[in-house]
Amino acid sequence: MPTYDDEEGYVSSSIESGEITEASSSVSTLPSRSEQSLTPDHPTLTTYFDGEIIGPKYTFQTRHPSWGATDKTDMQHWNRFPAWRQLGKQAKKPDFHYKNFTQRENIFMRWKESFLVPDHRVREISGASFEGFYYICFNQISGDISGIYFHAKSEKYQQLELKHVGDRGCFPAIEFR
Predict the structure, then answer these.
(1) Model pTM?
(2) 13 contacts: CB under 8 Å, gap ≥ 6
(3) Using one digit for the tens of pLDDT, what is the confidence trace for 128-147?
(4) Counting Cβ atoms within 10 Å, is residue 76 exposed (0-12), middle (13-18) or buried (19+)?
(5) Contact 12, 4 (CB under 8 A)
(6) Is the Cα torsion angle 84, 90, 95, 98 positive or negative in sign?
(7) What integer pLDDT is reported at residue 18 of this predicted model?
């Protein structure tokens, strides 16, 4: 389970599980996020995300009207990722599918914060919001994740930068027979 910390140390994320295959290209569970000092009533928040991997199933256009993004909004946000710019002309086409995405250096996704962990019934917290979503670029070589938050009523282009933190000496289990 890779762990990520932002440069300030306020956000810690871990990818609990996910399914990255050409056939499904969706993520059942993506990172949980723990934030410190976000709200006075909740000094630490852990939230659950659902994700969409851009590939054969999901395009670069957001298809959730309740998320509030238009095709123009999508292109403005994706264009902020240097790795996306080479795809830009093709990706603007609604029928463009990002093929062989698992074989590429960068995987593009959308992450939608869904609920608070461990109480999935909590959908609203004063000082925090689950209304927006992140445009994500995951670099498979470095393990780094860049994200840009979108919600129509939020400050534009809020960025999330997560750097991979290695295991620092932990080794995977090995079974001898």
Answers:
(1) 0.75
(2) 3, 4, 5, 31, 32, 33, 34, 145, 162
(3) 666 789 999 999 888 888 99
(4) middle
(5) yes
(6) negative
(7) 60
